[in-house]
Write a sequence for this structure.
């Protein structure tokens, strides 16, 4: 190292390097910390922005907004009951379909299938999660809804429509569009989410637990039912809630096949509406402040509900990983 | 029937049902992909890449929508990747076991699965209402809020996978921590982080709901981010919901190309990750 030209300057001491480095370190940490705080800011910002945007609707309608089934752009009377009902019913149908199927898929991929089959089949199911929701919507509208109208709806109306108690659910014209179709499409959409969580947590079960059960003479099913499921219960419920959160907030797939009708009807074959579909369909048509505000207020409700569901899901999933850590 | 036979039968039935469930899941996958493939290929022609979106009653293509989508996706990646990597690095390197780190991870995971329509409404309030009009900027920002949690999560996870011995060895040489992160840890985690960005790109390529209230749509050619901007998902949505058959055909062509793009990217991301795993071993 030649230092001749700067010999009149003292060589930088170790202390100066240390202070420079520590200053750089704290700047670095500060900037990165700010970026991390931005994540918190986005979520709270989203909540506050929608609360602010919906303030007129909340102020004008108050609690009535939650229980009123009015939706009238002319008289400016808005209530969220129909979309809330549609959201809950379609999500419920979706979960009825998706939970057993996802459990079956996870079981197949972890315990039943030969090992050469597990990776490709698992990847194929995950491919289902990669397809954008608008494709599900188009497929639902152009292919699945006509199929329902021709084959499923008339059969349901004929065979179940007159059964006491549940008959009201399945009677109606064979439109194809409606809450049942939307629920089924949603169910197909959330299957990959739930099944991949279930598969991942099933794989965390220590093999010595499973081997002990097999050694005692258990069948495969008994190992699954008495060892794997109890061990992973909280995480399985977490995965189900994760899928529920998706189903509640899904927009495009539902918008296509729900039929956009602001009427409360008991029949699953009738068109309905959901929170997300109402917003997507009507946002650009909203011609008055209170109309727009009501739509944003709907968005706020959706946000609150999905936040609670997803937070519960996360807590359930954390319980399993904590137990793994303590093992 | 003996207890043993009962148990054996139950076991066989359960395994059969698991197989049926898997076939059920794959059945929909095949049906949906087949529909997209056959209808998309039938509608595919060269003019889709060279002409603008048509008004009712005319023929056209999707060129302006493709360009708009590319611009806004690019904007979203450019905004969210550096912030996401920084935030993920903070979580993994400076806040791994702290309460603040846990809270941010928790919120990030919720953001990851939050309904995208909510993001759209947020950006509508944040930007569109303030600016007074729909714009490509707003669309890009909305998409960046979807990219952000994906990048944060993968960066955090990938850095946590880097062995501590690497950190200890570098720090013991007297290298300041920021240099350890930039020059050593990021390099080790790079394939994983790139995979995360690619997966995020795949995800926003099909996102419709957040663009509906931010970029809206534009029937004409524009590369100006200050105006409403055409994009493939919203065009697909509007054309599919329309009563015209030739608009439906355009929508299917768009859907086909978007699906192909997404499958291509996610397969690429997967290949990148698995190839790197082999090298690490």
């Amino acid at each position: 190292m030649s230092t001749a030209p700067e010999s009149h300057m003292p060589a930088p001491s170790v202390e100066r390097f240390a202070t420079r480095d520590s200053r750089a370190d704290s700047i670095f940490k500060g900037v990165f910390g700010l970026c991390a705080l931005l994540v918190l800011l986005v979520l709270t910002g989203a909540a506050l922005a929608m609360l602010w945007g919906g303030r007129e609707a909340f102020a004008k309608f108050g609690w009535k907004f939650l229980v009123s089934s009015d939706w009238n752009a002319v008289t400016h009377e808005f209530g969220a009951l129909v979309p809330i009902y549609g959201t809950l019913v379609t999500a419920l149908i979706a979960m009825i379909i998706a939970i057993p199927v996802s459990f079956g898929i996870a079981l197949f991929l972890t315990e039943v299938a030969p090992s050469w089959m597990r990776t490709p089949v698992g990847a194929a199911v995950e491919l289902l999660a990669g397809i954008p929701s608008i494709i599900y919507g188009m497929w639902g509208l152009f292919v699945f809804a006509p199929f329902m109208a021709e084959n499923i709806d008339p059969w349901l109306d004929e065979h179940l429509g007159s059964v006491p108690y549940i008959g009201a659910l399945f009677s109606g014209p064979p439109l194809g569009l409606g809450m049942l179709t939307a629920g089924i499409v949603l169910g197909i959409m959330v299957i990959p989410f739930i099944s991949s969580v279930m598969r991942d947590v099933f794989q965390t079960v220590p093999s010595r637990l499973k081997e002990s059960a097999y050694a005692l003479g258990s069948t495969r099913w008994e190992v699954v039912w008495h060892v794997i499921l109890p061990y992973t219960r909280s995480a399985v419920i977490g995965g189900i809630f994760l899928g529920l959160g998706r189903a509640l907030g899904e927009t495009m797939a539902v918008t296509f096949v729900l039929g956009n009708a602001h009427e409360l009807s008991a029949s699953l074959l009738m068109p309905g509406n959901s929170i997300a579909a109402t917003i997507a369909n009507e946002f650009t048509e909203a011609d008055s402040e209170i109309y727009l505000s009501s739509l944003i207020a709907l968005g706020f409700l959706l946000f609150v509900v999905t936040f609670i569901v997803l937070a519960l899901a996360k807590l359930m999933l954390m319980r399993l990983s904590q137990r793994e850590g303590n093992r | 029937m003996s207890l043993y036979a009962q148990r054996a039968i139950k076991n066989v039935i359960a395994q059969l049902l698991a197989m049926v469930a898997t076939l059920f899941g794959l059945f929909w996958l095949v049906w949906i992909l087949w529909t997209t493939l056959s209808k998309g290929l039938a509608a595919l022609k060269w003019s889709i890449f060279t002409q603008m979106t048509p008004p009712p009653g005319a023929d056209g293509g999707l060129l302006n929508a493709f360009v708009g989508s590319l611009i806004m996706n690019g904007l979203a990646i450019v905004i969210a990747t550096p912030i996401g990597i920084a935030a993920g690095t903070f979580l993994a390197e400076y806040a791994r076991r702290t309460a603040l780190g846990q809270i941010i991870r928790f919120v990030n995971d919720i953001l990851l699965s939050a309904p995208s329509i909510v993001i759209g409404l947020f950006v509508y309030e944040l930007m569109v209402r303030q600016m007074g009009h729909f714009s490509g900027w707003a669309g890009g920002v909305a998409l960046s809020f979807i990219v952000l949690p994906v990048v944060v999560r993968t960066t955090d996870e990938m850095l946590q996978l880097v062995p501590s011995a690497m950190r200890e060895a570098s720090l013991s040489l007297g290298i300041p921590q920021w240099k350890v992160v930039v020059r050593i840890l990021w390099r080790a985690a790079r394939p994983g982080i790139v995979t995360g960005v690619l997966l995020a790109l795949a995800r926003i390529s099909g996102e419709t709901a957040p663009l509906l209230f931010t970029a809206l749509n534009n029937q004409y050619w524009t590369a100006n981010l200050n105006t409403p901007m055409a994009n493939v998902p919203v065009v697909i949505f509007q054309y599919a919901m329309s009563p015209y058959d030739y608009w439906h055909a355009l929508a299917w062509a768009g859907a086909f190309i978007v699906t192909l793009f997404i499958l291509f990217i996610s397969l690429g991301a997967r290949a990148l990750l698995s190839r790197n795993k082999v090298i690490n071993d």
User: Anything to note?
Assistant: The CA atoms of residues 11 and 62 of chain B lie 54 Å apart. Chain B has ten helices and no strands. Chain B touches chain A through 85 residues (CB under 8 Å).
